[in-house]
Amino acid sequence: MKLLHFSIPPAVRLGLVLSVLAFSLRIAPLPEFWVTLANYIGLYGLVALGLVLLTGVAGMTSFGQAAFVGLGAYASAYLSTVWGVSPWFGLLAGITLTVVAAYCLGWITLGLSGHFLPLCTIAWGISLFYLFGNLDYLGKFDGITGIPPIGFYGMDLSQGRDNFVLIWLFVIWSCVALHHLLNSRSGRVLKALKGGVLMAESCGVATMQYKLLAFILAAVLAALSGWLYAHLQRAVNPTAFNLTAGIGYLIMAVVGGVGYLGGAVVGAIVITLLNNWLQNILPSLLGQSGNYEVIVSGILLIALLQKSPKGIWYWVEVHVNFPLSRLSNSLRPPSVKEPLQGTGPTSNSLSISAGSNGLSAKTACTKLAPRPRAHRGQVVLRVNEVCKSFGGLKAVNAVGFEVKASQIVGLIGPNGAGKSTLFNLISGVLPLSSGSIEFLGNAVQSLPARARARLGMGRSFQHVRLLGQMSVLDNVLIGAHTRAHSSWIGAIFRFNQAEEFALREIGQECLRLVGLEDFAQHLADTLSLGQQRLLEIARALASDPILLLLDEPAAGLRHFEKQELQRTLKYLSVECGISVLIVEHDMDFVMGLVDELVVMDFGNPIAHGSPAQVRDNPVVIQAYLGGID
Ligand code: ADP
Ligand code: MG
């Protein structure tokens, strides 16, 4: 009988060690002042953690987090003083209120691009500040006093030291939860949001849901900090939640390293200590008191960010070998190291088998089972009289053709002929001006790109769209997103491990198919352009596509790499039953690969037939080769 292996994840192990440390510091003879500072660092760190998720990971800047801190603080302060309910109920109410507010606000604003979102968060921050300050029952600008301390099993956490443990337990376990979230299928999508949503949508991901998730989670962390603050201070007033505070939280995250969870805590430590130190030292240096620390800390921060724009955590990771780099390395997600059996161009299917990797992986793989293939001769894609105009320019004009199951169709034409536009029309990135597109017999022209991807269209982009700072394997796994089902909550509690393992096997197999298996753990940025194109194909393959749309996949590849790609694409069509529609300029490559060719010129279809027919077509020679033999 096999013994079940149970191992504690590294992040949880670290969390446990730090929790024990927090408990032991409670009884350590630390001066009360230091305990108070540590409490504030923890409170700020929680908000900054949310900003790491929102700004550093998902690329959405918010100046309005202080308003969410206020929401958590005021909700519990009001309920526990006026209604006399337990602070724990106040926490529940505060978080519920925050989730509802963040959802509504996010739903309205997250579709906005560029500077509109930060502007909206500023407006939101200012509005809530004045709302707190003008409501009679919230005590106007005087706020609410007499807030009870948090009780825990009959014990009141009225001492700073007791709050210290509670605050830091929240900080530590929020870090652990976010670490697990970021190393899951949801986390990969959150990281993908930063570079725009086009790629993720083309992989079948409903990106708006993930934007909302990041926004709500960041707001909840802020509200949690507000709740702790209200019951630590035992009084709240609007000043603590104004726009300056919102900007301060963002500065902490940026200074610490907005791309790193640890950066949030480091930023909170540095800014809090710096402000405190300057407040002490400046009056004696300048001989007068005033808010000079704001000016000096501003100058110091500019100097610091000049030195290390990615923040202190990044700087330490690069320049000091210990402890942050070792810590980060030990927290990296596991990779599939063993080569998989029976995959690659010698195996007979792209379907994934669990191999000898245990029952849990097998169970997960059942969920990740390949979709049914189109049967021989079935028309997979039918393009009917499709037109697309950009203003007065007819980029695609009445183009029609079919792609059958297992067929490889080439789309060729001179530069500007409309090939990429047609690709975008087929994959749903652009809306049609007229005509229709059928995929597996269903009209899909009104479906968004993500819905078409879910039906089985996988695509690569002419200008590669990869996440350069993510590993090659993680890039591929974004393609496999819709094949898995684990939720973000499951990821936080690590219920997704069997599925993650199966996903990694799929990713590794797709990398093997394009010859990139040795680069799985490299950063995508470090690959050559040719390899990046192959990575785009691997990502498309990971979605288990029925139709593969490849826009100039061989551009930048060397001769032998092109031959290898040709073999792989033939293997995919013949052995795996995948249909391929390919745009390519290299005529040798195309002629030796495709079953049929469609030729476009100035948006018009000018020829359609086998490579031999097209090669001899005088119209094509005239248009494509400019009349040269
Ligand atoms: P190809 O891929 O065949 O080289 P494209 O499909 O990229 O050609 O472009 C076809 C024509 O449509 C070009 O004249 C191009 O300038 C124009 N075009 C493409 N995309 C847009 C767009 N988003 N807005 C306006 N014109 C566009
Ligand atoms: Mg193009």
Protein model, in words:
- With 629 residues, this protein is of the alpha/beta class.
- It has 25 helices and 14 strands.
- It has a six-stranded mixed beta sheet, sandwiched between helices. Strands 6-5-8-9 form a four-stranded antiparallel beta sheet, covered by helices on one side. It has a two-stranded antiparallel ribbon with strand order 1-4.
- The radius of gyration is 28 Å and the shape is elongated.
- It binds adenosine-5'-diphosphate (ADP) and magnesium ion (MG).
- Magnesium ion (MG) binds at residues 419-420, 462.
Number of strands: 14
Largest sheet: 6 strands, mixed
Strand content: 5-15%
Shape: elongated
Secondary structure layout:
Layout: H1 10-27, H2 32-57, H3 65-83, H4 87-109, H5 116-134, E1 144-145, E2 151-152, E3 155-156, H6 160-182, H7 185-192, H8 198-202, H9 207-233, E4 235-236, H10 243-256, H11 261-286, H12 292-307, H13 312-319, H14 324-330, H15 359-367, E5 379-390, E6 393-404, E7 408-412, H16 419-427, E8 434-439, E9 442-443, H17 449-455, E10 457-459, H18 472-479, H19 488-492, H20 497-513, H21 529-541, E11 547-551, H22 559-574, E12 579-583, H23 587-591, E13 596-601, E14 604-609, H24 611-616, H25 618-624
Parallel strand pairs: 7-12, 7-13, 10-11, 11-12
Antiparallel strand pairs: 1-4, 2-3, 5-6, 5-8, 8-9, 13-14
Helix pairs in contact: 1-6, 2-6, 2-9, 2-10, 2-11, 3-4, 3-5, 3-9, 4-9, 6-9, 7-18, 10-11, 11-12, 15-20, 18-20, 18-21, 20-21
What descriptive keywords fit this protein?
single chain, 629 residues, alpha/beta, six-stranded mixed beta sheet, four-stranded antiparallel beta sheet, 25 helices, 54% helix, binds adenosine-5'-diphosphate, binds magnesium ion
